[in-house]
Write a structure and sequence with these properties.
Structural class: alpha/beta
Shape: elongated
Distance between the termini: 50 Å
Bound molecules: adenosine-5'-triphosphate, magnesium ion
Number of strands: 12
Helix content: 40-55%
Radius of gyration: 39 Å
Strand content: 15-25%
Number of helices: 9
């Protein structure tokens, strides 16, 4: 998806290109405790700016709190609060207020203080009008520039936020695409079984006009499997559609051995089984895992079907589980041309763990292929046999359940995929 982002014309205004909007007149705050000085300043500036006047610091601060002051002209030497103090408080009210200080016989120390508080200029008293005009005009310009910079920074931030939300939407569109592909991939498995069974029933019944008891039992039995597969399809689509919300802390209700038994039933009727030997060994003692039952079956079915399909020669595939009473020693695992451990970062490596191996004695995986097998759409099978999504889904489902996945392969000897899942005692009711 390409991102079409047009910058509004006035998104960035520079000092050289002021926006076309009519500018409001700047507001000038005159602070002097002498009425005569205040009035003469008012006369100088009344035609150019909005004028506010204060005879002492407290009144100046109050005016600044109630009005948007751009520039303040401050007499340093005033009764009560000094001009320096007023400057400090004005900057506290609004750090962008610019100030022109009026000095008579100030020390360099006072000047230094005014500088520290970022006063814009100093005018000696008595001042001449043109110097005062120039000083206030420069201060006003500085204020305008600063507020334009501020507005532009805000607009920039707004644009960045828009860009970010476009990016998130783009990522969500990609995620949605992946989810759709995963649904189709996973539903394909049960559909293959359903279609095989329907075919078997058709063969059995043929053009018969009546069914004997044996045929009826046969059909009833097949219908049970078909029903289970249809339920699987529904669960798969439900799982993916609630993908982002799914996170249940409920203790598992189905024991792992039940899932292995279900997997055995499914696999034995899978077309990829062909003439291969297949064995599933149950756990000596049952336990639950912190993974949705359909996900467990999906993971193991993908690994088993891959093991069946690794060669067209007859070979053996077996599945075996074990409960590990200790956490894994991750340092003992090293990625190599024959080995890989995935999802270490999100792995909840705490005992008890369930370890389940899907092993074949097929041709093994070449070292140059091993790094690619978990990539989406990577497949060495023909276009009609593999989409290359199986292991990608397996890895993702294991990651979501905070498990880990290990693959060990040996050319000419076979491959073993081992899944490690956080185990949990079964719910009692
Ligand atoms: N047990 C195995 N032995 C040898 N190669 C394997 C084994 N399991 C996976 N592979 C390799 O990993 C590749 C990717 O597997 P993956 O399950 O992701 O896709 P696929 O099986 O090709 O297609 P799909 O599962 O989408 O139908 C396979 O094409 C194969 O080359
Ligand atoms: Mg596969």
């Amino acid at each position: 998806m390409t991102m079409a982002l047009t910058l509004p014309r006035d998104a960035i205004t520079t000092a050289a290109q002021p926006s076309a909007m009519p500018r409001r007149r700047g507001t000038l705050l005159i602070v002097d405790d002498e009425d005569g000085a205040r009035q003469s300043l008012r006369v100088i500036f009344k035609d150019d700016y909005e004028i506010l006047m204060a005879g002492d610091g407290a009144a100046a601060v109050e005016l600044a709190q109630k009005n948007k002051v751009d520039v303040a002209v401050l007499d340093i030497r005033m009764a009560g609060m000094s001009g320096i103090e007023v400057l400090e408080r004005l900057k506290y009210v609004n750090p962008s207020i610019e100030a022109v200080m009026m000095t008579a016989y100030e020390t360099t120390d006072t000047m230094r203080q005014a500088l520290r508080l970022r006063a814009c200029d100093y005018i000696n008293k008595p001042f001449d009008v043109s110097t005062m005009r120039a000083a206030v005009a420069t201060a006003m310009q500085r204020r305008t520039l600063e507020s334009e910079i501020h507005t532009n920074a805000e607009k920039l931030q707004q644009l960045l936020d828009e860009l970010q939300s476009e990016k998130i939407e783009e990522q969500m569109a990609t995620a949605r695409g992946e989810i759709y592909a995963s649904i189709i991939h996973d539903i394909n498995g049960p559909l293959t079984v359903i279609s095989g069974f329907v075919q078997l029933m058709n063969q059995r019944i043929g053009n018969a006009t009546r069914l004997d008891l044996e045929d009826l039992e046969f059909i009833k039995d097949r219908l049970k499997t078909i029903t289970r597969q249809v339920t699987n399809c529904i669960e798969i689509s439900r799982r993916y559609l609630s993908f982002l919300r799914r996170q249940s802390d409920d203790p598992p209700r189905v024991g792992f051995n039940q899932l292995l038994t279900d997997l055995g039933h499914l696999t034995r009727v899978h077309p990829s089984l062909q003439n291969n030997k297949f064995a599933v060994r149950l756990l000596p003692e049952d336990i639950g895992v912190r993974m949705n039952g359909t996900d467990v079956i999906q993971v193991l079915l993908n690994l088993t079907v891959n093991a069946f399909q690794c060669t067209s020669q007859a070979h053996s595939v077996d599945i075996e589980g074990r409960i590990l009473p200790q956490a894994l020693d991750l340092a003992a695992f090293k990625d190599s041309p024959q080995e890989r451990l995935l999802n270490v970062e999100s792995f909840d490596n705490a005992a008890p763990l369930l370890m389940i191996c899907v092993r074949d004695d097929g041709p093994g995986i070449p070292p140059e292929t091993l790094p690619k097998i978990f990539q989406a759409y990577f497949s060495t099978k023909g276009a009609r046999q593999g989409t290359g999504l199986g292991l990608n889904i397996v890895q993702r489902l294991i990651k979501e359940s905070k498990g880990a996945l290990h693959v060990h392969t040996h050319l000419g000897k076979g491959t073993c995929f081992t899944v490690y899942l956080p185990a949990q005692p079964l719910a009692t009711s």
